[in-house]
Design brief:
By secondary structure, the protein is an alpha/beta fold. It has 13 helices and twelve strands. The strands form two sheets. Strands 9-8-7-6-5-4-3-10-11-12 form a ten-stranded mixed β-sheet. A two-stranded antiparallel ribbon has the order 1-2. The chain is globular, with a radius of gyration of 19 Å.
């Protein structure tokens, strides 16, 4: 790793420590999906997907650049027929593999095949402890039952599991119930993802998003269970928890990890700071990953945010760095704007 900038406060902002390459790539290897989720960020993406040989060559570039892990997503990655071949190739390059899935296609045989292909962890999306609520949100009857069953099949195959829950109006008051669900089905981690305003999430924002006061109350409850639970890692990926005197203990950086520890690659190879910041900074098939990571102007802005508006006088700014840059960009057009979810 190489430091291109010293960490610490400078000129009213924070100068970030820059690594030579991202630690993790979140890679949407396809756009197709069998669900119709009302918050999906990728359903509006109609670009072509990379063919297998081009994807293999791109994975070689990623591994050579020094990336540690790949998290495959989509769409639903299991709809890509050559997923297992792709995974075996990536694992053979020394990349640590994980995946996000809706769970629909994961039976006992598939779970075993995923383990043999090199997957060490799979996250299953479950947005409510109540089957009818989850099924309605995801747009497919029976999806909750299949998702819960997938957790069992994966655990039996020896793959670590997590439950991924997008917090929004359908579930923000059911923290305890979601913790119980994750524990009952052997998940090692429960990821509470803050609602983003990208893709269909923006179109359905008024229906699904919470008010700043509701976000504060949700995080108060979530932090209580995070502190209490010992058999379950309750993960909160929202920088604004700093307003409650907390931060993600697993993070190596303050504020958002996007553009600092991780990068997103779309199905056609386009690179973006994260899946929710739709600004293309290069394409993995033709551009040098390390150069893009080092020189992309928007990454420089995300790593060295400057406080504006109410952030300029906030004592918590050095910890939250203005909150989620993706939400700020989507709703104000400015990465430096205060996170619209902020209640301060």
């Amino acid at each position: 790793m190489r430091s291109d900038a010293n960490s610490g406060a400078v000129a009213g902002g924070t100068k970030a420590l820059t690594l030579e390459a991202p630690l993790t790539i979140n890679w949407a290897i396809n756009n197709s999906c069998n669900f119709a989720c009302r918050h999906c960020y990728s359903r509006v993406d109609t670009h072509d997907e990379l063919d297998r040989e081009t994807l293999f060559a791109s994975l070689e570039k990623v591994a050579k650049a020094g990336v540690f892990s790949i998290n495959f997503g989509g769409g639903e990655p299991l709809l890509r027929r050559d997923l297992l071949e792709i995974a075996r190739f990536a694992a053979g390059l020394g990349l640590r593999l994980s995946m996000n899935s809706n769970g629909w296609f994961i039976d006992r045989e598939t779970a075993t095949a995923l383990r043999e292909a090199g997957f060490t962890k799979v996250g299953i999306s479950i947005d409510s402890h109540r089957a009818e609520v989850h099924d309605r949100f995801r747009g497919v009857p029976g999806s909750h039952q299949r998702a819960v069953a997938a957790l069992g099949h994966l655990a039996a195959a020896g793959i670590a599991t997590s439950v991924s829950t997008v917090i929004c109006r359908i579930n923000h008051t059911t923290v305890e119930e979601l913790v119980t669900l994750a524990l009952d089905h052997g998940a090692g981690q429960l990821n509470f993802h803050n609602f983003k305003c990208s893709g269909l999430g923006l179109a359905h924002k008024d229906e699904l998003d919470l008010s700043p006061a509701e976000w504060r109350e949700f995080y108060r409850q979530a932090l209580v269970v995070k502190e209490r639970e010992r058999q379950l890692d309750v993960s909160l990926d929202d920088p604004i928890i700093a307003l409650l005197g907390a931060r993600d203990a697993g993070s190596l950086v303050k504020g958002s990890v996007c553009g600092k520890l991780s990068l997103n690659i779309k199905a056609n190879g386009d690179m973006t700071p994260c899946g929710f910041v739709p600004v293309v900074i290069g394409n993995i098939t033709r551009d040098d990953l390390r150069q893009v990571w080092r020189d992309a102007p928007i990454l420089e802005k995300m790593r060295n945010k400057q406080p504006t508006g109410k952030c300029a006088g906030c004592s918590k700014y050095e910890d939250c760095l203005g909150g989620c840059s993706a939400r700020a960009l989507a709703l104000t057009g400015d990465l430096n704007s205060p996170d619209p979810h902020c209640w301060a």
